[in-house]
């Protein structure tokens, strides 16, 4: 719309200028040659404007029209004054040549401008489609060049937070792990005038790498655990039988009999550890079936109320409004929830609350278990899924290792993070079942 208004404005300017200049020629006396010379020179203005606005042929056309209108008057001047008709004819020829030159230059400038605009749109579309962020540093100012960079770098970091040397590096910006590739930005003369930074969110890659490392550790430890468990169970059976026999012999000597009870207790603990090792080394095949998670959680909380009462802790359940379905092994999911709840109970104090919640997050089922305990020490957070790692004197260190394996077999993820106010928030995510799988 604005362009159309400008075009009409210049058209009226050109036509009115031509009309006014021509009228001045015909209305001015032939003996006033200086005035006619000035009027003749004024023709360059509308002709030049036409050549710039509409191109070479429009300028040439207007110049020819001007010559056709002016030359009869020039012939009349030649007859009534000392004006040279040849001089006027050469002036008109010059006007045509100037129109051609100006129009040609204007067309080339417009073509260059059009190519520049096309290149700008092309580069903008390419940058906008990139899954990585692109930014530049010029004159100590950071400029975000595409939408991904605006998302990754909001709020905008300071230059001191960014890499100062060229090459690859990994940084933490706004609690987001980013891979950064820095290179020089040059001008037309090849001189460096700044830097180009390419940012990539590597949180997912880091999570995948950590899961791979954990899976490799689990596989190696699983093979070792299986062998050790089989070798240790038989000697433990002998120790148990001997201890029980010794306890019978020492029944009349309470001071000595207490030692046999300690032996039996520790043997039972080792037996539980061996059972966990065997489960870890030789997991049973999953018996997948459609599970209504809200219903399962209701049954789970009801069954665990007596256990929570032993710890003087209250359980609260918040279920999603609509029923959520997954394809999973019911017993395995129950065991996962029980392990997570036991950890939350052991971290809680008398009178505290443990909240369980089901919802949809990132197109997956998410089950949250939130306690109000002291939380997990950041120094050990990376090791909590390692087999045999425990912070309790009576723990085996296999509970969360089995949870991690079972969750992975279901195609899900498990993570622990600080709670909104205090304590620890466990997030269990599983793929939602399709509509067909529910029926």
TrEMBL record:
Its EC number is 2.7.13.3. CDD domains: HisKA (cd00082). It comes from the Bacteria. SUPFAM superfamilies: ATPase domain of HSP90 chaperone/DNA topoisomerase II/histidine kinase, Homodimeric domain of signal transducing histidine kinase. InterPro entries: HATPase_C_sf (IPR036890), HATPase_dom (IPR003594), His_kinase_dom (IPR005467), HisK_dim/P_dom (IPR003661), HisK_dim/P_sf (IPR036097), Sig_transdc_His_kin-like_C (IPR004358). The chain crosses the membrane at residues 9-27, 47-73, 85-106. Signal peptide: none annotated. It catalyses: ATP + protein L-histidine = ADP + protein N-phospho-L-histidine. Keywords: ATP-binding, Kinase, Membrane, Nucleotide-binding, Phosphoprotein, Transferase, Transmembrane, Transmembrane helix, Two-component regulatory system. Residues 227-434 form the Histidine kinase domain. This is histidine kinase. It comes from Herpetosiphon gulosus.
């Amino acid at each position: 719309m604005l362009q159309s208004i400008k075009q009409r404005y210049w058209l009226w300017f050109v036509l009115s200028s031509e009309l006014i200049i021509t009228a001045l020629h015909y209305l001015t006396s032939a003996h006033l040659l200086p005035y006619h010379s000035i009027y003749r020179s004024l023709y360059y203005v509308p002709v030049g404007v036409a050549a710039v606005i509409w191109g070479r042929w429009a300028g040439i056309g207007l110049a020819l029209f001007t010559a056709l209108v002016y030359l009869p008057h020039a012939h009349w001047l030649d007859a009534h004054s000392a004006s040279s008709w040849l001089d006027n004819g050469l002036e008109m020829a010059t006007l045509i040549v100037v129109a051609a030159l100006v129009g040609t230059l204007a067309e080339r400038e417009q073509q260059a401008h059009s190519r520049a605009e096309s290149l700008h749109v092309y580069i903008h579309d390419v940058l906008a489609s990139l899954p990585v962020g692109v930014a530049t540093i010029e004159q100590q100012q950071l400029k975000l060049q595409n939408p991904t960079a605006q998302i990754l770098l909001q709020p905008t970091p300071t230059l001191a937070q960014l890499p100062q040397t060229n090459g690859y590096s990994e940084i933490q910006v706004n609690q987001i792990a980013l891979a950064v590739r820095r290179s020089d930005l040059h001008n037309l003369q090849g001189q460096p005038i700044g830097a180009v930074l390419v940012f990539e969110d590597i949180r997912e890659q880091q999570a995948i790498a950590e899961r791979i490392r954990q899976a490799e550790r689990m596989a190696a430890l699983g093979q070792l655990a299986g062998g050790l468990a089989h070798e240790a169970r038989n000697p433990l059976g002998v120790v148990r039988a001997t201890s029980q026999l010794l306890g019978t012999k020492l029944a009349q000597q309470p001071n000595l009999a207490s030692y046999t009870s300690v032996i039996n207790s520790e043997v039972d603990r080792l037996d539980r550890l061996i059972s966990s090792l065997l489960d870890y080394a030789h997991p049973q095949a999953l018996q997948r079936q459609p599970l209504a998670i809200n219903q399962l959680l209701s049954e789970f909380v009801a069954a665990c109320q007596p256990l929570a009462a032993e710890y003087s802790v209250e359980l609260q359940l918040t279920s999603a409004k609509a029923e959520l379905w997954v394809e999973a092994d019911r017993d395995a999911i129950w065991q996962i929830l029980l392990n997570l709840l036991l950890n939350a109970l052991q971290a809680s104090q008398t009178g505290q609350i443990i909240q369980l919640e089901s919802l949809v997050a990132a197109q997956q089922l998410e089950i949250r278990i939130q306690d109000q305990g002291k939380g997990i020490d950041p120094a050990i957070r990376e090791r909590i899924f390692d087999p045999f790692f425990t912070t309790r004197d009576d723990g085996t260190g296999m509970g969360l290792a089995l949870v991690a394996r079972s969750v992975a077999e279901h195609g899900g993820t498990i993570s622990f993070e600080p709670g909104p106010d205090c304590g620890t928030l466990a997030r269990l995510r599983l793929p939602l079942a399709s509509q067909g799988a529910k029926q």
